[in-house]
Design a protein that fits this description.
The structure is a homodimer. Chain A is an alpha+beta fold. Chain A has helices spanning 9-16, 26-35, 90-93, 116-125, 127-153, 156-166, 183-189, 194-204, 221-226; strands at residues 2-5, 37-41, 46-48, 56-62, 65-70, 76-82, 87-88, 102-105, 109-115, 175-178, 209-212, 215-218. Chain A folds into two domains: 2-153, Jelly Rolls (Sandwich); 156-226, Winged helix-like DNA-binding domain superfamily/Winged helix DNA-binding domain (Arc Repressor Mutant, subunit A, Orthogonal Bundle). The first copy, chain A, binds a DNA duplex through residues 155-156, 182-184, 192-199, 201-202, 213. Chains A, B: InterPro entries: cNMP-bd_dom, cNMP-bd_dom_sf, Env_Response_Regulators, HTH_CRP, RmlC-like_jellyroll, WH-like_DNA-bd_sf, WH_DNA-bd_sf.
DNA sequence: CGCAGACTTGAGTCCCCTCAAATTGCGTGG
DNA sequence: CCACGCAATTTGAGGGGACTCAAGTCTGCG
């Protein structure tokens, strides 16, 4: 990892708003800040690999990190995509001693790293940290349950429609926004090949969706909901 | 739920060996025993539904509990299957205030219930409980990651082969065992229609697998690994 | 302005789902 | 203990969805 450093003012600010630290009391925050190390990752950098001993907890400050598992043949299946504020690797962290998945920066990213042993040590003294970890895990579990069910219940166009709707206000107004990352990344997150995502967007043109590059216009959220 | 009761000697014994309580100190165990309520569920009984306010933590003592999500059209997708010793509902428990999935007894089952508010209260005082909860969540997250990747990477016969291998000793000896539950349940767990599971078993006959009712004989684990 | 990577589109294939019907397995009452 | 009947499972046929491979086309950056 490039440029290891102590958190500066800017990074401290971001960390304070992250999912993990935002719920902690001042003392726990201080303890965590104390052991935080900031790192700058180039795109495609691996944070850790499936099967390696787990010794670090990670938190995304900016950019995106992709979690995936590998086939013996080398094919990859994405299982999660973490963005700013998300906690990475809690999956294996408290459980076994090894990472269950591989983590890779999907674009140039800034992340915070915490030595896992020291996190455990702080958590054993301060219940607010322990609770926050459990909360984060709990939320992640719900998300993955949702992904799994979505995979099994819906077709590609339906999954894409649901993703788009989740980025809309609940009212039926037309909206437009920018995809936060590359389409190939979105495809992986939705469990699709990039071609399938492309075809899904193409089909959704008939249902009030216009896509140009990363720009998405949704002219009729109601129609989209009916897909 | 039928026959609510305080845990008797038999139930206390089972609870002590469960994933959650086995790691706790005596005092936390006592506190949890204090608030445990045992219930006997007939097959198909619903424990809780997706979207309901979450007020209970559950632990399977015997039998199996199926977690699934519902389509607007009423189709179901299983996301997890819990057996004896497993903790249910930790997914939504600490996170949001609502269950993220529906839980249904897959067969007549015995479960322990804990009032969630009181569990949180105990956890805020006793870090061993909080840690145990985080551990359980962590392990579950890893399992679901594995399911999701398995779904996306492997065909039905491959998924079935992997399931069978996971129930074998790592050595290459032939083995035979009884499936712990109905095939239709296994199908759901593997994300397959019952017909697809049946066809997979049929295909695996050519790779050293014999199935008669719930009895499975694996004559050549090596061949199975190559599928 | 041009290159490289990302995306789209087309063709072909395979996998798994759905529906329907036959068969087997298992628990229960006689 | 055996037969019956219901439910679970198996088998067949057909169809649709998504993957792979292979070209093209677009986009953004240098």
């Amino acid at each position: 990892m490039n440029r290891l450093m102590k958190p500066g003012a800017r990074e401290r600010e971001t960390l304070l708003n992250s999912g993990l630290l935002s719920a902690l009391g001042v003392e726990s925050v201080a303890a965590m800040m104390e052991i935080a190390v900031i790192g700058n990752l180039p795109a495609r950098q691996i944070l850790f690999r499936e099967g390696e001993p787990a010794d670090m907890l990670h938190c995304v400050l900016s950019g995106y990190v992709r979690l995936y598992k590998l086939d013996p043949d080398g094919r990859e299946a994405d299982v999660e995509l973490y963005g700013p504020g998300d906690l990475i690797g809690a999956s294996a962290l408290l459980d076994g001693s090894r990472y269950a998945v591989t983590a890779q920066a999907a674009e140039p990213s800034l992340i915070a790293r915490f030595d896992l042993k020291r996190v455990r040590e702080i958590a054993s003294r301060r219940t607010d940290l322990c609770t926050a970890l459990a909360n984060a895990l709990s939320a992640q579990l719900s998300r993955v349950f949702a992904s799994l069910a979505d995979d099994r219940l819906h077709t590609a166009p339906q999954r894409v429609a649901r993703y788009l709707l989740s980025h809309c206000a609940p009212d039926g107004r037309a909206v437009s926004f920018r995809l936060p990352y590359q389409k190939s990344l979105l495809a992986g997150k939705l469990g699709l090949a990039p071609e399938a995502l492309s075809r899904a967007f193409s089909l959704l043109r008939n249902h009030g969706v216009n896509v140009r590059g990363r720009l998405v216009q949704i002219t009729d959220p109601e129609a989209l909901r009916r897909v």
